[in-house]
Every structure is written in C-alpha cells, then in structure tokens.
Amino acid sequence: MTDMIRCTWPGLTDPIYTAYHDDEWGRPVRGDDLVFERVALEAFQSGLSWLTILRKRENFRAAFDGFSIPKVAAYTEQDVERLLGDAGIVRNRAKIEAVVNNARVALDLPDGLSELVWRHADPDSPVPRTMADVPAVTPGSKALAKELKRHGFRFVGPTTAYALMQAIGLVNDHIEGCVARARESALSGR
C-alpha cells in the first residue's frame, strides 16, 4: 500500500529494512539475552549501515551461540579467532572482543542487563513530527551509556545507546502518523 505513512529512514526499496521498521523497531524487547543481542548488534553497526547488520543478523546469531550471555562470556581467544575468520559477520577484532567482554560484564549484573537498560525507558518522549525531530542523543541515552560504561561495557556511547533505546522500545521514535506507531498505540492502548 503506497498510501501508508512510514518513517523515512527505512526507505521503501529494501524489503528487509521495511519489515524491520514495520515489525520490530520500537517494539519492547525484554530478557537479558534478547537485550544483549541488540547491544551487540548496535556495537557491530557502529560506523556501518544498519542494513548491513540486518542482512548478517542470522549469521551473527549462529556465530555467537544465539547471543546466550553465559555461552559468549565463556569464549576464549580461540573463539575470537574463529569469529575473525567468519565471513558471515563483521570481522572487527575490537568489536568482537567488546561483545565477549560485554557478555562477561552482563553475566555479573545483579539485576540483569534487561533490568539495567529498561530503567532508562522514556515512554513519555515527545512524538516526532518528522525525522528531523528525532535526536541522535538524549539525556537518557547519555545516562544509559554512562551506566553501561561504569559496569565495564564497551562500544556503548550515547549515540549507540540511543539507537538501542529506539530499537527495543525504550522510546518510540516512529514519526507522527507512521503505520508502526499507530499499530503500537493500538496494541498498548495509548
């Protein structure tokens, strides 16, 4: 349907991007492993196109044992080398080592990663009228990044933290009138 309004970032030319926008982005994601996957993928996306990560997502899931925090936390240098040889993922040593580090840190969080991240939810954030109204960084993303770094997480700056907040529903940055915003409002009753 061409008359549906969507946020402009996914474009309409790639069905993977459109499906991600319509069916995933901005919907609440809870659970330590599920949130860990999103933290890891946002770190891998740093400096790259999100579409690149989406196209490789199943490869990432297979390579990182479904983003099971205990499994990834147990990775050794041999696992890092294995991942560096995996053409199905982004082969960046610093990012791979950050994901392993972040799993170890997440494993030791007293209330879990999901709880830590969701403390920064902003359900009352303003509804953006256009994509120009969507910030790259907010006070909430700065606070989340600071808290994650305080615990020892890497590749979690304020911009990456805000992208995570958007992706897993801590904020709803679908523009006013967007088909996905309307669907979320109907599901949540607001």
Automatic annotation (TrEMBL):
Keywords: Metal-binding, Zinc. Zn(2+) binds at C7, H21, H174, C178. GO terms for molecular function: DNA-3-methyladenine glycosylase activity; metal ion binding. GO terms for biological process: base-excision repair. PANTHER family: DNA-3-METHYLADENINE GLYCOSYLASE 1, DNA-3-METHYLADENINE GLYCOSYLASE I. This is DNA-3-methyladenine glycosylase I.
